[in-house]
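Extended Data, panel c. Modelled sequence:
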Amino acid sequence: MSDAVLSARTALVTGASSGIGWETARLLAGHGATVLVHARTTAEAEDAVERLVAAGARRDQLVELAADFTKLSEVAVLAGTVVKHYPALDLLVNNAAAMAPERCTLTDDGNEVSLQVNFLAAHLLAKLLRAPLSAAGDARIVNVSSSLHRTASMNWSDPHRVKKYSRVAAYAQSQLALTMATADMAPAGSGITAVSVNPGLCDTALLPLYGRVGAPAAEGAAAVVRLCLPETVVANGAYFDGGVISSTAAVAQEERSLKRLAKLADQLVGQAV
């Protein structure tokens, strides 16, 4: 694939060292985009880029970026690097995700780890990268969510679920928060459109949460990349199930809950903003 429809565009893909993220980077590069390949460590980012080149991507299209999303300070440094070197950013694919551990685990920032990696990092990136996204004109944010968000509820009094913890509930809450916050990542007049997508059940590191057989990661990535293409018309805040626009959980449409989440997210990222 090399249709060059994205040849003048720059995309940041988080969690691009494996699974849907890596396949998304591969497909975007195939469409001609310059891809900022994020991984947790420099070694993982370099390895991902080597594999992308082996898969046919041009080396000069790929840029390694490293940040451990369990540390919000590293998310902020990553954003600062992007702002410095890329004054215009056309695409932000918030794909990075962690499976909640068996026991409640808090990051050094004090947040439940899956809530931070899967949602708060994306929330912070969208804020800190707003200038280059706006400068690009018609930029898009694509949040890789999950159908599990429909089974979730926001635990407003104990968002880290310290008192009553379930790894599936924690993961599902993180995906609900990401889906709920999508529209807010692209304020009116910003020139940005943000959407979320359930890529389908794929054979990735997160599959044990679902306990079923998954499709190849490339299939999920195709649903993500479709939303990155200029030919795909999208509305801000829309949610897609694979390639089809779908309804979100009811709470994602409640104005009061959306405002409450925005306030909570800002509080939880704290000094990293």
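The helical segments are 19-30, 42-54, 72-85, 113-128, 130-136, 167-181, 217-226, 255-269. This feature is highlighted in the accompanying rendering.
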